[in-house]
Amino acid sequence: MAYTIVVKIGTSSLTQPDTGHLALSTLATLVETLTRLRREGHRVVLVSSGAVGVGRDRLGLTERPRAIALKQAVAAVGQGRLIRVYDDLFTSLQQPIAQVLLTRGDLVQRGGYVNAYNTFQQLLKLGVIPIVNENDTVAVDELRFGDNDTLSALVASLVEADWLFLLTDVDRLYSADPRFFPDAQPIHLVKHIGQLQEFQVQVGNSRSSWGTGGMVTKIEAARIATGSGVRTAIADGKRPENVEKILGGEAIGTQFEPQSRPVNSRRHWIANVLVPAGKLYLDPGAVRAIREGGKSLLAAGVTRVEGEFHPHDAVRLCDGGDREIARGLVNYSSAEMEKIRGSRSEQIPEILGYAGAETVVHRDNLVISIN
Known about the structure:
5-stranded mixed beta sheet, Archaeosine Trna-guanine Transglycosylase, Chain: A, domain 4, 8-stranded mixed beta sheet, alpha/beta
């Protein structure tokens, strides 16, 4: 059976921990593995970190840059070298590749999201392996993915992948960091993200000076991917060949089972790509109507408005305890919502002085959050 596969590899796996130089043996194994998968008929996408790390090494910097402008400059230096190394290795195996640099801003507009989808589909149809990274050189802070784990999950959903592999500096998910807690218990299968609370998982940020992610970002990536119907695996990045072994049925790493009913492309875009501009707090009746009845949100159910937003912006819908229950595209601005919250739909024209939408968030533009 042929799969669509997204493989993400982190900076800590691509570089040597003591020097930051590229780990060429790992890179070569990764390239050989992905090329074999492609020749077996699978559609393969690689999400690769490392541009900032490679740029830092090339410029002789001793610390990871913190200022946005410096980081973007270092990424510009590193991205060219990184893609050249990939191109040399893949070319030696006669495997064509493409460089795809994305920012969240490219996907926020629905038209951009659709265009990105079409481009990926054409590349995969041509037998090309797209190599994806965040476009650090031009990304603005409020529209950043923040880490390539999140980027890889969004790409996996975008290309309608069957598998997402997160290759990292640990071999699987543990109840705590095994490097500092020797009695940490390995976790082989997660049926739903809420199960991690049962395992009493403790997650923290990466201890690597070269990378930006940690296990917390990988769990968030798994939440996004599995919610879109993508089976997700965390495995040792120093052994890229494990991707083939996992596909072959070996119990390696940690796997996250996908949801039985994945969200469609538009709902995924609303839930995971768009950056919420505000919050609407709901009364218990509205919460039940949305969670249990799949209803639209009416103004009568809104008790409080937070943030500044415009019509068609994404907003979080929260219960009285500030727990997010859904996200959606709002039909009114925050100023309008302050006036009509708690009011019946037939009262809205009188309150605003003009006719508006009957719903605050229509059910077609609403996505229930996964807890």
